[in-house]
Design goal:
2 helices, about 30% helix
């Protein structure tokens, strides 16, 4: 009589983190810019993204959006 097969193990026993739905403000056009970061900043950014369940680029956008000032561009009419 053949031996009973052992149950298959899954790749990971931890549940996946569900992604948050993007708001209207977060759905801006995304351009693949390249920036160079020191290794220590990259590590901290990666850790923040992991803790919040975000992609690295989403965490970077969140941090930069919070830290950078907002500028208002006012154009004067050339005809007047």
């Amino acid at each position: 009589m053949p031996a009973a097969a052992a149950p298959k193990e899954t790749k990971s026993s931890t549940p996946r983190v569900s992604r948050k739905r993007k708001s209207a403000a977060e759905s801006e056009r995304v351009v693949p810019w390249k920036i160079y970061l020191p290794e220590s900043i990259h590590f901290r950014l990666r850790q923040l993204a992991y803790e919040r369940g975000l992609k690295l680029s989403e965490a970077a956008a969140e941090v930069l959006d919070r830290g950078l000032p907002f500028y208002e561009i006012v154009r004067k009419d050339r005809a007047g």
